[in-house]
Design goal:
The protein starts with a helix and ends with a strand. Helices cover 63% and strands 5% of the residues. The protein contains 13 helices and four strands. The mean pLDDT is 90. By secondary structure, it is mainly alpha-helical. It folds into two domains: 210 residues, Fic-like fold, CATH 1.10.3290.10; 61 residues, Arc Repressor Mutant, subunit A (Orthogonal Bundle), CATH 1.10.10. Helix 2 packs across helix 4 and helix 7 runs antiparallel to helix 8. A two-stranded antiparallel ribbon has the order 1-2. Strands 3-4 form a two-stranded antiparallel ribbon.
């Protein structure tokens, strides 16, 4: 059993994916990070408001449209994955049209015009920003993209749904190969990540997210693989990055469970001891600063000195609070 399989089993075993709105919010996270890799500054929270409430943050309209379009593309990709439909050039171009619907543009070339907002394949040669390395000639794109679809369809029929490592390896390799072909003038990165996630969704594994915080490492690994004409560096990065993301999610979930348990214990203790609101406020302050003074408690709560002293006395009688050390240099201890 691989390290990835163990992490996924723990992730599923904890019930993280059983939380309310998990699928929706996880999808929103994928979209937010994928567009952020392309320069969008729209956050996950802002996307939630945009998608669910129609509330537009104060961000450039192009960035908002980029996120809205990618959401539509992912909804269609999810439908395709659930129906286990075969890949085709037409299907990929249809998804690209959704990705670029409001941010694409028309290109005029010597051999004719094409529009990226319609998902049309590029009719021009493109050059990467890093060192001016060119992608394959536009003339080769239709055949290579058709070969790509045939390759994915063949792999999908042979891969075992229980072989988690092979599923992710195929999805990462599909991402790499699609970027390598670079079929469209715009949106190739978003499309490559979408196809990667679509393969993962079809196989029922947790879709991987390329976090915006790892943008530079992600681009570097992709460039290194392309420069060496070998996908190993990129696939290795994607495996490590996905495991790290799952570990973080597990850690955060465990911490939230601990916090919920602590809050429940505190609520139970408050009910048992019948603490007043004033006593609860003072306890909360002492939790944050054990050497807090009477004057500081007064300042933070607005209570009078007699009220603070009376409440502390009550807490002492209930066996919940003791004073350790001298009056000046001591501190409060919650029992």
């Amino acid at each position: 059993m691989s390290n990835l399989k163990k992490i996924i089993d723990e992730y599923i075993g904890l019930g993280i994916s059983d939380q309310i709105d998990y699928d929706k919010l996880y999808l929103y996270s994928i979209i937010s990070h994928s567009t952020a890799v392309e320069g969008s500054t729209v956050t996950e929270i802002e996307n939630r408001l945009l998608f669910d409430e129609g509330i537009s943050p104060n961000k450039p309209i192009g960035e908002l449209m980029m996120n809205i379009d990618l959401k539509s593309a992912y909804e269609e990709a999810k439908r395709i994955a659930e129906q286990h439909l075969d890949y085709s050039v037409e299907m990929l171009c249809r998804l690209s049209a959704l990705v670029m619907k409001n941010t694409g543009k028309e290109y005029k070339t010597a051999i004719g015009n094409f529009n990226s907002s319609n998902g049309e394949l590029r009719r021009l040669n493109v050059t990467a920003g890093r060192g001016g390395k060119s992608y394959m000639s536009y003339q080769k794109v239709p055949k290579r993209l058709d070969d790509f679809c045939n390759w994915i369809n063949a792999q999908r029929k042979t891969i075992s749904k229980d072989d988690v490592d092979k599923i992710y390896e195929l999805s990462f390799l599909a991402h790499y190969n699609l970027v390598y072909i670079h079929p469209w003038a715009d949106g190739n990165g978003r499309m490559a990540r979408l196809v990667m996630n679509m393969i993962q969704m079809e196989c029922g594994v947790i879709p991987s997210i390329v976090k915006k915080e790892k943008r530079e490492d992600y681009i570097k690994s992709l460039a290194e693989s392309q420069d060496n004409d070998n996908p190993d560096s990129f696939i290795r990065f994607m495996f490590v990055h996905h495991v790290d993301n799952l570990k973080i999610a597990i850690s955060e979930y465990k911490q939230s469970i601990e916090n919920d348990t602590l809050n429940l214990k505190n609520d139970t203790l408050n009910d048992t001891l019948k603490l007043s609101d004033k006593e609860k406020n003072i306890i909360d302050l002492i939790k944050k600063q054990k050497d807090i003074s009477i004057s500081e408690i007064m300042l933070n709560t607005g209570f009078s000195r007699p009220t603070v002293i009376r409440s502390i006395g009550s807490l002492k009688k209930k066996g919940l609070l003791v004073r350790v050390g001298a009056k000046k240099n001591g501190y409060w201890k919650i029992v």
